[in-house]
What we know:
Radius of gyration: 18 Å
Helix content: 25-40%
Amino acid sequence: MDNIKLIFFSPTGGTKKIVQAIASGISHKNLDSIDITKKTVRQTAPLKFSKELLIIGVPVYAGRVPVTALEYLRKVQADKCPAVIVAVYGGRDFEAALFELKLECQRVGIEPFAAAAFIAEHSFSTSNIKIEKGRPDEYDYTYCKEFSRKINVILKSELSGSQLQVPGRTVLKPAHPILPGVIPYTDPKKCTRCMKCVEVCPTDAIDKYNPIFIDKEKCIKCCACVKICPEGAITMNLQITKNIAETVNKSDKKTPEFFLSE
């Protein structure tokens, strides 16, 4: 494959690391990245794809693809463009995310032939409450290499008519609101107005004149602001974080999963 396009939504960086690692192991001549985390990128004219390999990566929010990412993907135009789709979750479960991503891709002319579910540090994870802390790690990158190897094998074969099966229901249920009423809290005594949180927020939910204020209607709970704050002034609900940590940490270490066309 001569040309690869990376398309990813990655507010806290885990998804970006994984799709870049996968792409590095696939034979190519040219590699371009489209970071749809940035609102300015999502607001550009819809892109058209035809002769590229697309690698599309999204995080998993409450078992689904973030609506912010879907809104961009639904504007894409593609002419039977082969794709690798990747869902990245924080250790609990990826549920219907891959299935949803596959459906949305097919609706705009993208044809996924390989899919994977990888694990990255949960966006709510902190130094004190660890949820898959440090992932992706060397263990995960080994799986990235193996997934890339399998993709290279498929690309050398005939893709026409291949069928990709991923976990998920035939009909998707309406997505539930993610933690309704819960948004990150900014401590006004710690905030230095450095505006780094404003810069990384993918939905402009943080007031650019007074970053202490966060719009609960725009906030998608991605926690990019929490991760970037140099003063630790922004925090997520501690009890919810503890509950997620308890659920994830009591299970065995999750292993990346691959799904390949037949």
